[in-house]
């Protein structure tokens, strides 16, 4: 099997390249730049690849025909606004695409415009894409919109509660924390080491672009859920997300009962681990494809707390993309991953 | 003015010693060990002081009489369970005490026992202590119970909402994050560098010992508030707390209105800074006595979000203790502090 | 092929378990505790394994016969002082052993005693062990003494200079820096997060136990080298070593000439990468088995500077151990490794 | 006493502002931008000051006359290339200037050009500036060239050895490590959090612009010293320098003897602390004006090792600048500093 990868220089692309290189079904990886659009002028160059990536060949210039002729699937690890402009021919040909960007995640073009401040794809095209949380379903089309990192941690944490109708639908509060790699390689005041080291700060409060895809999915699971309170906080680390989730229980319950609900829900899901004692730490999933979950019920406030941790670049991006590829080609969903974490 | 300091080797004690040494009214600092009780055997030694503290004299053995005779006020920067056993003579003599530990914070001895798992002080003695959030009031007695670090960030963030009855009393959720110094110098698996670096984790969920003092104070401000949802998360940094506070508004409001409420509330309070644009980062208050506050209202969920940041060792411990000393002796509450932060 | 692993709970053991689990020739990993000796009482327990290791079976009690009967090779990821007491039967039977500890590295028992402050193995037994820097040679016996982390970075950095007689033999100075995982999981004042974060410090100056194995190997390469100046510095990171190496050139040379020497020397060595432009950073080898090398010559001081970086837990311990196993069983030395680094 | 400060937005400027605000002799601080030159266009704006600096007034536009009329001394915390263009009128008027930049440090204009790649000041003007390491001497003119951070740590570490002729003059090797604040606020690939966290790397090997001022000073102390080997390494921390210094002893000595030499040398110098046991860590001097020194002699290699640590923004920049101001106005050299460190 041959795969194409568009965009290897960003963090997700680098991790994807690492994971693809150890997948037993992948015999060749073709690397493409994504210079097709005027707005991505600066990515046109095929040189300047970091030496540590061990890439000897120059990047190929982006070209749909080459991709289709020379490979069996293509991954896009590109920023927002790229696939919306260049992927149409692949959709037309029903060629397998796994898109790590946000361009095809939202079914409503106006929502995309509102949250991404970019030109959306046409509604009928969006319908052909399958937003697929790889741990809970298989893609329903050949164009997979891979979920965002915050969305993955949040949705896996909320699924058992929302699908089983255990919580008040308007009571969901998510306090999500992320390391710096989630914001990409862009140089900003916020990403300077001397600023972020020994620092943490809320950012994009109620404005993060992963909010609408979370609401869209929750609403699909339970149409009474229409909105959530969602705060993102930057913490001084490179990789990792902790989504701290709060919701009011519909009726009094207990920590034990809830743990059982989660265990039952995730019984056949190899990448979700439910803790019966305490809460997971981000390091427990670092560099792995796991989502680890801890649950607690507080009688005094009738509130359920869920701690959901992932590595934002693996489960929250490249790892889930491989999982979606495994689904698409009917491989086992754990294929290509090392199940033993790489710690410390 | 001469001050006694019991417990200089812990983090709060070290910062207190630093701050006292630059206070214009303090001419001498007497340093005491706190070996009076059998349970603190290991603190008996007066040697082993870190050289960087620039302390040439050995610690004095703890003795109430010496303290009263040779100084005008005593600070206790001791772990839970010390002042409950050794401070009674000072209370009897109405000698000025500022106690950074939790021993005299809770008015109900059973609550102390429940949350601290230690023998409480008698109820009538507890009544003689004044739990005093230094930014909002002055001590009403000579024995000041200095608030805990999480409690300070949380209460300063909630005060305008609770005192002005702007939120549903049973809707308060606090997601508080702290660096490692909050947990003290104790060596545990959780405090090992290789464990905490590139890691974060929820801990003591609904079980942190600062919860009852927060509820006690909130209830005093508004007797409809009886409980809160409170989660503590360890993040990889040394100093700093971010309390992320959520509550449902009693009636629809706006970010602008709320910012005005906070500005009015904190107008004459030199150590609270209300942001009109965005949210504070922990670094903005690092090594300072400030509490910085950002507020946001979300129409979609009718939820108010407040970000409250402090340096846990200054505003959350030693700095507030000095502020309480300033109150006790009628000094200006900013006396002894450098108002310009020490950044980066 | 079945392998036994004694000591999975330390950092090297954890990484070894991760790497063995992805080795194509390894079908089973048996995990043993190492409680055979009274001094290791605390390791006797077979419970208490971290859940993230995904180990369902309890650890087997240490037993040479079981190891020999049920596996083809055994790895010891144990602290100093264990294999010296328990490995003799395996040596007697010429069973393949890869020992990550320092017990069999030094040929002179008195040196072991001097630097490790422990009882040494008998001289004739030591002779049966093969100290083998896996990038430069193959083991000459079935008992492999795997080199230490500092020794690996230093020796790979010095080999081309010492073997080619390019430097003054008494002029070698190594300023080696390491992250915290190099010091193991032991809780000490030095390992507390709040102490090491935003800190660095020289430690064990001229006293690090890897000094004698470096000198032993250098002397074997060039008998004029008898001693080196070696300083170890702790820096605030988890994984990684940078050995900064200085030596006087025997005759004036140039950066270009030296880079060519290194390229030639390492031409057929897949795990050493020589930089022609600038110096490697630790991140370039993080979580990988590479040793990256940069070289520079300073005319003004006639001094050669070499920067040598490795991941101390992979190339400096578990990775090299796998490499040595590959040598022992005539597998390709890159077998079982992902050649694409896992960055950031 | 009134002081002017040109350049408050860089790290040194921020720390200088903090320190000046607590100096008992400073009653007013005037803040100036440094927009006088075309090459600093981007600094022209007087808005955009970080709110945490507590600066209510806008920056004054740079103007020598205003500075001279309204203040008694001016500090320049500006990048290289500014004072060389704008300070001439102040020199002509013999107005007290403390220049934290490198523009007036080197006596030879060609050296400045070679190392800074900028247009130098005329030789006769350079003669009017006094390069003054504040711990060892007093300025000899009203224009003080404040030493660089690496130079300060290195020179204080080498002074007793070089001045007392204890080492081979051509044997000096300095392996200096610095946190990120030393490189300033500029956004570069090297300063991105996700790159530097869990990383370290040599940079500017033999090319750092502090090398010539170190050699100039060493040569002045001992004219046999003409060059040094000097490597700079970036480590993942914000503040702090460790200069690890190596040199061959002229005749065999001992650690004890050397410690005595250092103690005698620094006996009357309040800001240098000599360790008799072990080596200093950077945290011991963090946020303080101290330089802490540890010394060790290795018989086997006849090599002296000195570990010298400073806070690069205090002792290595703003603190030393205040010390130089204290010298210039005959204040005690510890005036304005808190002698108790602010730890952790």
UniProtKB/TrEMBL annotation, chains A, B, C, D:
CDD domains: AGPR_1_C, AGPR_1_N. The active site is at residue 149. It is found in: Cytoplasm. It is an enzyme of class 1 (oxidoreductase). Pathway: Amino-acid biosynthesis; L-arginine biosynthesis; N(2)-acetyl-L-ornithine from L-glutamate: step 3/4. Its EC number is 1.2.1.38. Residues 2-129 form the Semialdehyde dehydrogenase NAD-binding domain. PROSITE patterns: ARGC (PS01224). Its main location: cytoplasm. One of its GO terms (biological process) is L-arginine biosynthetic process. It catalyses: N-acetyl-L-glutamate 5-semialdehyde + phosphate + NADP(+) = N-acetyl-L-glutamyl 5-phosphate + NADPH + H(+). Pfam families: Semialdhyde_dh, Semialdhyde_dhC_1. GO terms for molecular function: N-acetyl-gamma-glutamyl-phosphate reductase activity; NAD binding; NADP+ binding. Keywords: Amino-acid biosynthesis, Arginine biosynthesis, Cytoplasm, NADP, Oxidoreductase. The keyword Oxidoreductase applies. One of its GO terms (cellular component) is cytoplasm. Belongs to the NAGSA dehydrogenase family. Type 1 subfamily. Catalyzes the NADPH-dependent reduction of N-acetyl-5-glutamyl phosphate to yield N-acetyl-L-glutamate 5-semialdehyde. This is N-acetyl-gamma-glutamyl-phosphate reductase. It comes from Limosilactobacillus gastricus DSM 16045. The lineage of its organism: Bacteria, Bacillati, Bacillota, Bacilli, Lactobacillales.
């Amino acid at each position: 099997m041959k795969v194409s990868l568009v965009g290897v220089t960003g963090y997700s692309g680098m991790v994807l390249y690492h994971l693809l290189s150890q997948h037993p079904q992948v015999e060749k990886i073709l690397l493409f730049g994504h210079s097709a659009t005027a707005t991505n002028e600066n990515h046109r160059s095929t040189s300047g690849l970091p030496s540590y990536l061990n890439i000897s060949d120059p990047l190929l210039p982006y070209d749909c025909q080459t991709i289709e002729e020379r490979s069996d699937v293509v991954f896009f690890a590109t920023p927002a606004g790229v696939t919306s402009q260049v992927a149409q021919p692949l959709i037309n040909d029903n060629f397998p695409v796994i898109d790590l960007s946000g361009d095809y995640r939202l079914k409503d073009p106006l929502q995309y415009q509102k949250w991404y401040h970019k030109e959306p794809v046409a509604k009928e095209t969006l319908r052909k894409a399958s937003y697929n949380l790889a741990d809970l379903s298989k893609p329903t089309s050949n164009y997979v919109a891979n979920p965002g990192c915050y969305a993955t941690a949040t949705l896996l944490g909320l699924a058992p509660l929302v699908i089983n109708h255990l919580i008040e639908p308007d009571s969901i509060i998510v306090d999500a924390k992320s390391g710096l790699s989630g914001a990409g390689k862009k140089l900003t005041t916020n990403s300077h080491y001397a600023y972020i080291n020994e620092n943490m700060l809320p950012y994009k409060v109620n404005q993060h672009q992963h909010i609408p895809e979370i609401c869209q999915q929750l609403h699909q699971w339970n149409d009474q859920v229409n909105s959530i309170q969602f705060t993102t906080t930057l913490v001084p680390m490179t990789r990792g997300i902790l989504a701290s989730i709060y919701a009011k229980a519909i009726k009094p319950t207990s920590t034990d009962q809830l743990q059982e609900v989660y265990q039952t829900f995730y019984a056949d899901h190899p990448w979700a681990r439910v803790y019966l004692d305490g809460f997971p730490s981000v390091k427990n999933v670092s560099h792995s494809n796991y989502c680890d979950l801890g649950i607690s019920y507080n009688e005094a406030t009738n509130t359920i707390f869920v701690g959901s941790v992932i590595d934002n670049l693996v489960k929250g991006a490249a790892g889930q993309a491989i999982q979606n590829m495994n689904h698409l080609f009917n491989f086992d969903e754990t294929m290509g991953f090392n199940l033993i974490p790489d710690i410390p």
